[in-house]
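Query structure, 298 C-alpha cells:
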C-alpha cells in the first residue's frame, strides 16, 4: 500500500504569496488525502512582524487537507535553518517528504507526480530527488518525464535514506572539489552554483539548496522531472529572500500529466544541453537588466 507523502510548507511574511501557494495546493487531486505541515518562522525585524502575524492568522484557518499541523517558531531561524530543521523533522517520522515554499504555485497534478515518483523510485538509489520545476524549454521528449543531474528547490521531494547525507559544510566541499569538479558542478559553467558555496563560506549569504545539490552531485545522483513544469515561482517580484526580480523563469503549468512508470534512469542529453544554453541566456539577460538599472539610477 502506498501511503501518501506528507507535505512541508515554509512560510514567512508574505500573505498574498502564501495564499496563492495554499490555494493552488488545495486544488491538487491528492490534497484532501495528504497531511500538511506548515512551518512559520518568527520575524527577523520589527518591519517583518506585521507580515508574519498576517500569515500566521491565515495558516491557522487552512483546511482542505487530511490533517494540518502548524509549527510556529518563537525565534527567527532564517530560511535556511528553518528548511533544514523542518525537512529533517518530518522525514525522520515519515521516511519521505514533499517540500514547498510560500511563493510556489503548483499544478493540480503536482502531488500526483511527487507521490508516483517517490513510490516508483524509492528502491533506486540513483534517484535522489523528484523535482517539480522545469525551465521553459522546447524539446522532443515523448515521455511525461526525464532525468537530469541537477536539483531544484522549487517544489521537490526526497527520501530519508538520501536526505541523511545532507551536510551544510562549505569547508568540506572546498577540500573535496577541484577545478574539473567545479566546472561539472556549475553545469559546464552555465550557472554559478559554486559561487553560492563560496558566498556561504564567506558568510555573505545563508542558503541550503546548493549543499543539497552538492550531496546529489557527489553521489552521482539523478533527479526525476516532469517533462513540463508543475511548479511556477511567483517570488521573482522582488519580495523573496533569495530570489531577485526576474521574468526569466516564468512557466505555464502542466495540466495534462498522464503517467509515470519505472525505467532505467539515464540523463536526457538533449534536455541537459538545452538547460545549459537556457541558463547562459538567462544569466546574460539578468546582467543586462542590472547594467541598465545601474545606468538609470546613477
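Result returned for the query:
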Amino acid at each position: 500500500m502506498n501511503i501518501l507523502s506528507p507535505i512541508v510548507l515554509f512560510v514567512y511574511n508574505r500573505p498574498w504569496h502564501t495564499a496563492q501557494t495554499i490555494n493552488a495546493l488545495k486544488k491538487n487531486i491528492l490534497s484532501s488525502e495528504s497531511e500538511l505541515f506548515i512551518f512559520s518562522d518568527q520575524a527577523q525585524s520589527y518591519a517583518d512582524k506585521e507580515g508574519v502575524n498576517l500569515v500566521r492568522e491565515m495558516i491557522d484557518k487552512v483546511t482542505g487537507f487530511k490533517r494540518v499541523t502548524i509549527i510556529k517558531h518563537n525565534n527567527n531561524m532564517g530560511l535556511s535553518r528553518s528548511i533544514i530543521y523542518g525537512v529533517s523533522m518530518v522525514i525522520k517520522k515519515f521516511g519521505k517528504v514533499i517540500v514547498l515554499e510560500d511563493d510556489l504555485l503548483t499544478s493540480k497534478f503536482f502531488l500526483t507526480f511527487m507521490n508516483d515518483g517517490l513510490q516508483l523510485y524509492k528502491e533506486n538509489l540513483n534517484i535522489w530527488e523528484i523535482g517539480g520545476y522545469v525551465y521553459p524549454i522546447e524539446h522532443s521528449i515523448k515521455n511525461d518525464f526525464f532525468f537530469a543531474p541537477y536539483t531544484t528547490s522549487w517544489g521537490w521531494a526526497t527520501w530519508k535514506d538520501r536526505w541523511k547525507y545532507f551536510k551544510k559544510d562549505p569547508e568540506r566541499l572546498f577540500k573535496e572539489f577541484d577545478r574539473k569538479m567545479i566546472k561539472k558542478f556549475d553545469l559546464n559553467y552555465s550557472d554559478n552554483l559554486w559561487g553560492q558555496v563560496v558566498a556561504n563560506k564567506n558568510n555573505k549569504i545563508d542558503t541550503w539548496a546548493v549543499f543539497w545539490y552538492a550531496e546529489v552531485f557527489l553521489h552521482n545522483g539523478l533527479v526525476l522531472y516532469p517533462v513540463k513544469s508543475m511548479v511556477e515561482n511567483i517570488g521573482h517580484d522582488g519580495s523573496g529572500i533569495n530570489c531577485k526580480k526576474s521574468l526569466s523563469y516564468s512557466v505555464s503549468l502542466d495540466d495534462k500529466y498522464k503517467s509515470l512508470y519505472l525505467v532505467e534512469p539515464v540523463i536526457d542529453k538533449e534536455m541537459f544541453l538545452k538547460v545549459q544554453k537556457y541558463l547562459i541566456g538567462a544569466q546574460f539577460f539578468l546582467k543586462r537588466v542590472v547594467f541598465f538599472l545601474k545606468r538609470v539610477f546613477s
